[in-house]
Amino acid sequence: MPTTAAFNELSQLPRHVAIIMDGNGRWAEQRGKFRVSGHKAGVKAVREAVTFAYKLGLDALTLFAFSSENWRRPEEEISALMGLFIAVLGSEVRKLHRNNIRLRIIGERGAFSDHLQRKIADAEALTAANTGLTLNIAANYGGRWDITQAARRLGELVAAGELAPADITEQHLDVHMQLADLAPVDLLIRTGGEQRISNFLLWQLAYAELYFTPVLWPDFAEDTFSEAVAAFVERERRFGCTGAQIRALVTEREG
To answer: Is 165 a domain residue?
Structure first.
């Protein structure tokens, strides 16, 4: 039976929420607009999600902004997305800093322009010492890439004679994954009606609760976010245990 330490901080509310922000393009098309208009409208939804996460007292919020598969989209849409990314970094990072929010970008940055990479580095440096909510933006990110880069680092340790293959554990891999220093993802929300995780945080979602909503991302607001959290609270999270074992652990902690 797991010990209390295995459940470090049992709480009804999630500590770490991840969101797949889907539906920007469809939102624009439904209104007879170009797809980039949907991405611009989605920035407002990002602000609302970050504000609600801040008020809720979350440790971390991770948003899936641009997947490694998104490079297959039309060139003009990708160009518009990169421009929007630069603009948002410039306009929002100081607001985040004033609210003690730490910003981090996770993913493979090498494909981005030098200008965007500098913007990312500057934004992260400005907010690095902040101690409130950690806001992670996944850009050019893929879950398989994440696992691969962690495995590559372990391979380097083995090649250097610092680690024996037989000694490799899940914990060795875990410390080299993105978000390793944060609480595990408790709740994954996906907007737009699709019910899949699309190569997002494959390792980190091992015990996350999944919540799917038909709401398109530009229409995502505090009411939708709160409904997802309410659904999370209503579920009995077991982590591979029975409900009785979880209740016993809570009783032990309170004793």
So the answer is: no
